[in-house]
Amino acid sequence: QMRGSRSKALAERALVNCRYSLAAFSTGERRRRPPHGDRQCAELALHLQQSFEAAILTHLYPRSQIDIYVQILQADGGNYCAGVNAATLAVMDAGIPMRDYVCASTAGLAEETPLADLSAPEEAAGGPRLVLALLPATGQIALLQLSARLHQERLEAALEAAGQACRALHAVLDRGVRERLREVT
Amino acid sequence: MAAITMRLPVPRRAVGPSAPRGGEKHLVAPGDTITTDTGYMRGHGTYVEEEKLIASVAGAVERVNKLVCVKALKTRYNGEVGDIVVGRITEVQQKRWKVETNSRLDSVLLLSSMNLPGGELRRRSAEDELAMRDYLQEGDLISAEVQSVFSDGAASLHTRSLKYGKLGQGVLVQVSPSLVKRQKTHFHDLPCGASVILGNNGFIWIYPTAEQKDEEAGGFTTNLEPVPLSDREVISRLRNCIVALVTQQLMLFDTSILYCYEASLPHQIKDILKPEVMEEIVLETRQRLLDLEG
């Protein structure tokens, strides 16, 4: 159903509405964050919306709204990725048709070695950071974001590392989903 | 006052399927290719990409001749003509009420589909529009039948019979729509002393059986007399039984609810919500249902 303003309802597909927030106790020191004013949260919510609009088959739900609210309980690097993976499972559990799983992972470089799934100290170190959201079956990229500068030659290696991590994640998520299906049917 | 019991969370053991299903079910997740054969027509839960039929929800594949569809575990209610639903009024608009029925879009109850008090048959005038709020307000529960479905999936309801209308005192249980079995009638008077309406949309309404069966008002006047304690106990027990059946994923219909109620009689009403007691009751119910099937 459409909640909030009716005028934003799209006639031929569903609107995906995402909200992203960090709990106060999620990082090392407890910080009280403004409820919705945080710019980083707004940006990550927009990224979530873009990734899921690419994955959910929205044309099957005209004039409706799909809400995805993500709250991070423990932040240790890769917040957005954890949010994407959790939201994928949530959307699948709700029975909303999707093209494929959306698996996300960060990748970076430390002195020529590509690293996958960076932790918070590694992210804070200031090196280049690549965030990749992938649809594993077809290999289509839903979102690709790079912060800090990266040499063009190193891009391939980092992308490959992130892709591998995403595919490994897909295997884990898939196993969980199938176990649950087997349990219930 | 009884003390509060607390317990630590423990992984749930699902009661496994007792009867072996005929054949292995083909379980899929989004992104899995179901078949590359172009001879099949695609149904719900699938989409076509580059001549491959790919699943879009996580569930079991159902094949009917040439039609392939994937049935998901948990979906919103999809209205079908002739279904009984129980819904809650969310909005009062110009000539209609918007009813929430656990579906993708709010269902619509048009003023012309509603019986006037007194059972008159006349064209609805402007005064009727202004008096809409006297009949049904936001937050009221109604039982209705689906008359038709709009192109975007919203259902249009009607209460054109005396058995539909505003619901009075009782208990609502919300379950997944896939657990309510399709039957000839969804209004049941259980012999234990309460009545139950099994809405196809997953809303189940339990209420005390009315003594006199003739109501000329068409279900508008709500009976606000105090309900006796014995009836309340029966209703609470039924509600806990339904919750127990739902957690073990058993189909809901009048016989299963009745057997579950009888199996739960030796326990106290509040004990039914404990996991071990729930498992025991549901096992017994399942056993009796299997015996019934023969």
TrEMBL record, chain A:
GO terms for molecular function: RNA binding. GO terms for biological process: nuclear mRNA surveillance; poly(A)-dependent snoRNA 3'-end processing; rRNA catabolic process; U4 snRNA 3'-end processing. Its main location: cytoplasm. GO terms for cellular component: cytoplasmic exosome (RNase complex); nuclear exosome (RNase complex); nucleolus. The gene is Exosc4. The lineage of its organism: Eukaryota, Metazoa, Chordata, Craniata, Vertebrata. The keyword Plastid does not apply. It is found in: Cytoplasm; Nucleus, Nucleolus. Signal peptide: none annotated. Belongs to the RNase PH family. The keyword Cytoplasm applies. Keywords: Cytoplasm, Exosome. This is Putative exosome complex component RRP41. Residues 14-97, 100-164 form the Exoribonuclease phosphorolytic domain. It comes from Chionis minor. InterPro entries: ExoRNase_PH_dom1, ExoRNase_PH_dom2, ExoRNase_PH_dom2_sf, PNPase/RNase_PH_dom_sf, Ribosomal_Su5_D2-typ_SF, RNase_PH. Non-catalytic component of the RNA exosome complex which has 3'->5' exoribonuclease activity and participates in a multitude of cellular RNA processing and degradation events. Component of the RNA exosome complex.
Automatic annotation (TrEMBL), chain B:
It is found in: Cytoplasm; Nucleus, Nucleolus. One of its GO terms (cellular component) is cytoplasmic exosome (RNase complex). It comes from the Eukaryota. Keywords: Cytoplasm, Exosome, Nucleus, Phosphoprotein, RNA-binding, rRNA processing. GO terms for biological process: CUT catabolic process; exonucleolytic trimming to generate mature 3'-end of 5.8S rRNA from tricistronic rRNA transcript (SSU-rRNA, 5.8S rRNA, LSU-rRNA); nuclear polyadenylation-dependent rRNA catabolic process; poly(A)-dependent snoRNA 3'-end processing; TRAMP-dependent tRNA surveillance pathway; U4 snRNA 3'-end processing. CDD domains: KH-I_Rrp4_eukar, S1_Rrp4. Residues 170-211 form the K Homology domain. Pfam families: ECR1_N (PF14382), KH_6 (PF15985), S1_RRP4 (PF21266). Residues 27-64 form the Exosome complex component N-terminal domain. Residues 76-148 form the RRP4 S1 domain. InterPro entries: Exosome_cplx_N_dom, Exosome_RNA_bind1/RRP40/RRP4, KH_dom_type_1, KH_dom_type_1_sf, NA-bd_OB-fold, S1_RRP4. The keyword Calcium does not apply. GO terms for molecular function: RNA binding. Belongs to the RRP4 family. Component of the RNA exosome core complex (Exo-9), composed of EXOSC1, EXOSC2, EXOSC3, EXOSC4, EXOSC5, EXOSC6, EXOSC7, EXOSC8 and EXOSC9; within the complex interacts with EXOSC4 and EXOSC7. The catalytically inactive RNA exosome core complex (Exo-9) associates with the catalytic subunit EXOSC10/RRP6. Exo-9 may associate with DIS3 to form the nucleolar exosome complex, or DIS3L to form the cytoplasmic exosome complex. Exo-9 is formed by a hexameric base ring consisting of the heterodimers EXOSC4-EXOSC9, EXOSC5-EXOSC8 and EXOSC6-EXOSC7, and a cap ring consisting of EXOSC1, EXOSC2 and EXOSC3. This is Exosome complex component RRP4. It comes from Chionis minor (Black-faced sheathbill).
